[in-house]
Design a protein that fits this description.
The chain has a nine-stranded mixed β-sheet with strand order 2-1-3-4-11-10-9-6-7, with helices on both faces. The protein has a two-stranded antiparallel ribbon with strand order 5-8. The protein is globular. The chain contains six helices and eleven strands. With about 240 residues, it is an alpha/beta fold.
Amino acid sequence: MNRIRLGILQTNHDKSVEVGDAFPDDAHRFRDLFDQQDDRFRYRVYMTIGGEVPQHLDDNDAYLITGSPLSVLDRHVFTDDLLDFIRRCDAAKKPLVGACFGHQAIALALGGEVKRSDDGYNVGIETNHFTTQHPWMNPKASELSLYMFHEDYVSALPPGCERLAHSARCANASFTKGQHILTTQAHPEFSHEFMSCVLRYTESSMSEAQVTDAWQSLKQQTHGRVFGDWCTHFFKQALSSQ
């Protein structure tokens, strides 16, 4: 079987010495996650943070929109083009996965709502409870502990979408639409080292209790690799149904 051509839309470019210079960027973190699997992708990275958005959907078999410290509630140079791209993917039933910022952008583009939390940042490891099961969710699991790092959240799902998971501080932690869209508020691509680094530089924006809880949560085992497997199975099923 030919490798799936995966286009990754990178919505972040961290230029800080402490984080950006010390770790791989968002697209590479997802590549590292997927490259642990037997099935390998052919990648094309789009620097959406700078305004680059795929013009022709058929340039790739499937797409993924990364996370970002930016807020989808703000205007960015790429906002209109990204939301239009998401709508084009939906109309064409092009397989699309969104994580964190990508999750929220997909919700907004398709008619959902995103709000900023009154409780501040949700940072650390949180259990995502999956209340719906699909064949591509293999290996099977009803709970995944995943890294979370967000202040905005999806407050209302778009029409025609189904909630897949919730967590203690995120009612719509994951959702699907048909067989072609899958999202997660979590960061399956994060490592313990990277999460620890961003937490250190977020502490000043959090309460003392939130900081303590976040560090305590990082003692848990995470299941990002399982969600990565799910994404691959999701892409394959979506493409086989076309």
